[in-house]
Structure formats: structure tokens, C-alpha cells
Design brief:
Blueprint: H1 7-10, H2 22-36, E1 44-45, H3 46-49, H4 64-68, H5 71-97, H6 104-129, E2 136-142, E3 149-155, H7 172-183, E4 198-202, H8 208-219, E5 226-231, H9 234-247, E6 257-262, E7 284-288, H10 296-307, E8 323-329, H11 335-344, E9 357-368, E10 382-392
Parallel strand pairs: 4-5, 4-7, 5-6, 7-8
Antiparallel strand pairs: 1-9, 2-3, 8-10, 9-10
The structure holds S-adenosylmethionine (SAM).
């Protein structure tokens, strides 16, 4: 395991930045990113990335949270980045004044410096702009043949190591599900022609899946659709609301409705009266990484039974297309909890024939585990995710 050391001991000294090559400085900026703007665990699908590997990534450092919240190290990183940016500006100015006899190599070096400048400025904004240490804002880019989808997402620190506030951070399952949704919407029944859909997310956390759905449905012209992102933890809900607002600002008109609401899986099924927006069924339900206690699968099944649209021939959204898409990581530490999905939801062929929720398909995706900073399962090289498509058996 590579232990990340403090920026003040690892980075080239501020006074000697000008003596380092652009390549070394780029490496130093990447190092700072590992601390202040890391990737989310397990989001690079192995079959897509095997040809892109450039050597090994550092393994997770258990002291990373402490390092990130160290005010001295953060202010050192800010000073270092400021000095670096000033130096890169000086170099770029020299390049411009020598423009007439600029060779191909010089042009290449200029673009390398511009990339370095851009990366260092972004990181400086992240380090300097976060009100509380540990807050991370990332930009996610997802692509399909239509519009690219860009999402700004903020993770906030876990509350005093409160285990129940895990949704304050973005997990690999949400990244993978959002990527799959945007890359292949047909798999999730989001093809053409556009229909007006009611979509629900359970345990939405920072909201990546719901926000990706909102942007996808808007781009695909499902104009009267609604996305309801739910969670139960107060600080997670506050961050979810703020992430939705950041991605759907009031200033730009949004064709679909997207909102956040409290929904506790343990309590919801017993409610006598279901308040709006839960008083009508949903065409699609999504859940990413929401099975990690033994009761979760049972609670979630009860919620889905109450909330997933039932077979209804009068609906344009025929019952065979109403689905609950669940994606979970197979954590070696949580094999019992993960196995409860298949105990609680039978496979379609094994079902009793009564109208009930069954697993219609099960697909496994393997992702690289690099970039993890808060694994509960150790430093495995790869993470397996299972995608269950669940629907009504008839
Ligand atoms: C591991 S996080 C996953 C968050 C998000 N889906 C993602 O993948 O980034 C689990 C989520 O389930 C939520 N959760 C846990 N127990 C819950 C309950 N009883 N009712 C509603 N949400 C719950 C947590 O607050 C958290 O947001």
C-alpha cells in the first residue's frame, strides 16, 4: 500500500519550482489531486480500460481523511499551487514573446503548460473554495451518441464518522449506474419515443443517479417526466437538495421536474397514508449500493411493492416495462448482506406464479478499484458490481 505523505514534504519546494520540468510539476499536481480531488472508487470498467493503463495507481491511504482535513497542509497546497500558477504564466509569456521562431516542440510544450495551468487552477479553486475541510466537488462527464452530460457533484464529510451518513459521499455503484444509463438508455427502458415517466431513486446519497436521469430525460425530450430522489439522513438530504439545485439552476429552464424527499425504507411501508409524491406509482425505480445491512433487501422490497407501477393494461407504460434497477458492489466484507437480494427477490423462473417482484436479469460488471479513498472492503484491485433488473412476475 502506498501511503500518501503530506504535501509540505512531498511537493517540490516552493522556492525551487522554476527548476523543475513541466512533467515533474504535472506529476506533483496529480499527487495533490489524489488528496484533494480523488476519483470515486471502482468506476472504470475493466474491459474498457485495460488498454489505457499507465502503470499502477497508489493504493488507498487510510489516513487520507486526516491529511485532507489538515489545515496546515491545505494552506501549504494553496500556496504551492499559487506559486506554480505564477511560474507557468511566466513561462507562457516567454513562449509568446518568442512566437516568431516557435518550433513544433515549443508549441507542444506550450500546450503542456496550458494543461498544467488549467489543472492547477481547478485544484486551487477546490482547495481554496471549500468552506469545510473534506468537502469535495467533482465534475462527472458521461457520453452517448447524443449530448454529453456534465454533472457537478459535492461530497460532504461524514458527520463525526457517523456511519449512517454514508450517503454524504458518492459511491462507485452510483457512478457506474449513471454511466450505464447515459451510455445505453434503452437497457433501462429510456429509449424513443419519449414518454412521460415517474422515476424514483431510493437511497440517493449525493444524487448522481437522479441528476444523470434528470439530464438524460431532459435531453431525450421526456418533457413531462419527474425524478424523485430520496434518502433518510438529514445532512445527506440537505446535500442532495443542494446538488440538485447546482445542476438544475432556476435561471435555466428545466423541462422535467426533479426534487428530493425524505423516505425511510424501514418506515415507509407501514405508512397508512402516502404523502405526495409517493401517492402515485413510479414507472422506474433505481437504487445504487443500498444493500449493506441484512434488513435492507427486505425493507426495500416492501417499498418497491408499494411504489412500482403494477400491471395495468390501460397504461401506455405497460406493466412488463416497469422496473426496479438495483446495483450493488460485491464487497468481500458484506457477502451475507449482498446475498439477501437473491433470498428476498426470487428469480423469475423460480417464482410461485403469484404476482410478485422477481429478478428478471442479473449482470456482473468488473471495475478497477483505483482511486478509492474510503473503501470498507480493503484494497482490492478490482470491484465487481451486480445489476439486477427486478419487475412484476405475472
Ligand atoms: C452506500 S450509500 C449509497 C448512496 C448512493 N446511492 C451512491 O451510490 O453514491 C447508501 C445510501 O442509502 C441511504 N440509506 C441507508 N439506510 C436508509 C434507510 N433506512 N432509508 C433510506 N435511505 C437509507 C443512506 O443515507 C445512503 O445515502
Amino acid at each position: 500500500m502506498t501511503i500518501l505523505s503530506a504535501p509540505s514534504t512531498h511537493l517540490p519546494p516552493i522556492g525551487k519550482i522554476q527548476t523543475y520540468s513541466a512533467e515533474d510539476l504535472t506529476k506533483a499536481v496529480h499527487y495533490l489531486r489524489l488528496i484533494y480531488n480523488p476519483d470515486v472508487r471502482g468506476i472504470r470498467r475493466v474491459d474498457l480500460v485495460s488498454s489505457l493503463k499507465h502503470g499502477s495507481h497508489p493504493s488507498p491511504d487510510p489516513n487520507l481523511d486526516a491529511l485532507r482535513s489538515d489545515a496546515f497542509e491545505r494552506s501549504y497546497a494553496i500556496r504551492w499551487l499559487t506559486a506554480l500558477i505564477a511560474q507557468v504564466y511566466r513561462l507562457l509569456e516567454c513562449d509568446c514573446s518568442d512566437d516568431d521562431d516557435a518550433s513544433y516542440d515549443a508549441a507542444g510544450e506550450t500546450s503542456e503548460l496550458e494543461v498544467l495551468l488549467q489543472q492547477a487552477s481547478t485544484l486551487l479553486a477546490i482547495c481554496a473554495g471549500t468552506a469545510s475541510a473534506g468537502t469535495i466537488t467533482r465534475t462527472f462527464h458521461f457520453h452517448n451518441s447524443d449530448e454529453p452530460i456534465e454533472i457537478q457533484l459535492t461530497d460532504v464529510p461524514l458527520e463525526n464518522q457517523d456511519y449512517t451518513s454514508v450517503g454524504a459521499q458518492t459511491w462507485g455503484s452510483a457512478c457506474l449506474l449513471a454511466e450505464m444509463l447515459v451510455e445505453d438508455p434503452e437497457v433501462f427502458g429510456l429509449g424513443s419515443p419519449p414518454e412521460d415517466l415517474r422515476v424514483l431513486e431510493l437511497g440517493a446519497g449525493t444524487g448522481l443517479v437522479s441528476i444523470a436521469l434528470g439530464k438524460l430525460l431532459s435531453a431525450k425530450g421526456h418533457s413531462a417526466s419527474s425524478v424523485v430522489a430520496t434518502d433518510f439522513h438529514p445532512s445527506v438530504l440537505a446535500n442532495l437538495k443542494s446538488n440538485i439545485a447546482a445542476n438544475f439552476p432556476h435561471t435555466s429552464p428545466c423541462p422535467i421536474s426533479i426534487s428530493s424527499h425524505a423516505l425511510d425504507w424501514a418506515k415507509f411501508p407501514a405508512l397508512q397514508e402516502r404523502p405526495a409524491p409517493f401517492n402515485e406509482p413510479f414507472d422506474l425505480i433505481f437504487g445504487a449500493d443500498i444493500i449493506y445491512e441484512v434488513e435492507h433487501a427486505r425493507w426495500i422490497k416492501s417499498c418497491a411493492e408499494k411504489l412500482l407501477r403494477k400491471p395495468d393494461v390501460s397504461s401506455t407504460w405497460v406493466h412488463s416495462r416497469a422496473r426496479f434497477h438495483l446495483i450493488i458492489p460485491l464487497r468481500p466484507t458484506h457477502t451475507l448482506e449482498s446475498s439477501t437480494v437473491e433470498t428476498v427477490f426470487p428469480f423469475s423462473a423460480r417464482s410461485s406464479g403469484a404476482e410478485q417482484l422477481v429478478i428478471l436479469s442479473k449482470d456482473v460488471t468488473v471495475c478497477e478499484a483505483s482511486g478509492d479513498v474510503r473503501s470498507r472492503s480493503g484494497a482490492a484491485a478490482e470491484v465487481e458490481y451486480v445489476h439486477y433488473a427486478i419487475g412484476w412476475d405475472s
